[in-house]
Amino acid sequence: MGRVKKRFLLVAGFFISGLNPLWATSLEKINSNIRPIKSENKNQAQKNEDIFYELNAPEDLSLPSRSREVLIKTQKKVNLDQLENLLISNNRTIKIYLEKIDQAKSILKSSLSSWYPTLNLTANGIPQYFESNNYDESSFSQDTSSKQWSSSITAQIKWDLINPARVPEIASARDSFEKAKHSYSIVLRDLKLEASKRYFDLQKANEEIEVAQKSIDSSTLALRDAQIRFDSGIGTKLEVLEAKTQLARDQQLLNINLGDRKIGQRSLAEILNFPEDVTPVIGSKTKVMGIWDSSLEDSIIAAYNAREELDSILLDISINNSNANAALATGQPILSLVNTSSSSFSRGQLNRVSPDMNNKSSSFSNTIGLNASWFIFDGGRSRSLYNYNKSKAKEAKLNFAVTRAQIRKGVEEVFFKLESAKLNITASYSEVLSARESLRLAKLRYKSGITTQREVVNNQRDLTDSEVRYIIAVTSYNSLLADLSRQTGLDNIKACDIKVNKQKEENEFNLEESNLIPLCQL
Hints:
There is one protein chain. The chain is an alpha+beta fold. The chain has 2 domains: about 1-35 and about 120-160 and about 335-375, no CATH class; about 75-115 and about 165-330 and about 385-520, Outer membrane efflux proteins (OEP). It is built from 10 helices and 10 strands. A 4-stranded antiparallel sheet has the order 2-3-6-7, covered by helices on one side. It has a two-stranded parallel sheet with strand order 1-4. The chain is elongated.
């Protein structure tokens, strides 16, 4: 028995050692074909422990059951430049696409395994005991019996020398892996844009609250003056009622903006995946981020070069072509090198009058050869799948042209909207200055008794509306800048000079007192 085992191990060792270079080649191909996704941003985010908020593991499926678990207890200040790191660290959608990259990587490794030889072990009875009694009624034969312990093992090593489906399947899996990385980049950019817009909206809500509060202060003062004038007999009840009406309108504006701020905070917390008892707050003011430092033509070219959507479509074309070749390969011959080694051992005898359990026997055999298989006719299935995947490749080519046109259209729309938003900022800025000066003059006229409270109320309302429009214009401009950066993949936002007129006008109206955010020289 020991001699048989040595022979089996010797043959298997020679065969496996002869295939070691093949294994090394396969591993080298795996290392050269699988390029891990860049993780600089992820590592940078992990270093920022002060903004890392992932408290629950992704597999945590528990839900809060008590109100204090969802009660807002703490606030966390968030800056605009922290959004990307927070997204990479916390956002569940990002983590889902990272898992998809790992899945595609595993599929690629699985397809690369076709370069490996396969080893199959089969054991029958390890061990098994056989016992039987045979009775013969004729006088010429004796009754026999069988008693035997036996075991057998077969090892087969198989390596496909020729497999037409192997190369296209690996190419398809490799392209799918690259497409998964492109999908991750696309989602990260889209989420960054969405987070930036929500950040700007929260900024806008904060600014509008300040405008509403100042309007309330001004309306409260106007109501007090109107009430004093009415009590003194020099004013009318109508003036008091108009002042009360304006104060009520300003209070409604404040209530709406307070609600918008709460909604904006929770919206930002949702995309950043903050814990349920933490809400984000921002301390930055709404201001123009800068100017776009690229022409429309350069922006379009940059968008073509930077958009992973086009690369993904090109990968779709390659994947469908590879799948077509793999479908056609099912009807082509496969040639395999096969080595089969078998070993058996038994103790006892079969069909003997008196079986001897001390009788031992063993055997060993080894067979090596080439096996070929050819699925000649499959009813047209492989040809139909080939035509299907070729049609999908043509469809992807058409989608490439459609997506390219959509990319240009998107860049042009955002670029033109940015130009309009730039003009709106200038116009709304001038409107605020004029409305504030008009309110000041109206108050002077009212105190001099040459106008009514209605003029003051109207100018107060105009000032509030103009300040809100200015904030909306700046917020829209910043959102369009972020959108254009997402469309083109560029970060060509140039810091602009600040234009502030600190000189007092002849009417002694000071721009600093207007509490406006300084305007860039656009």
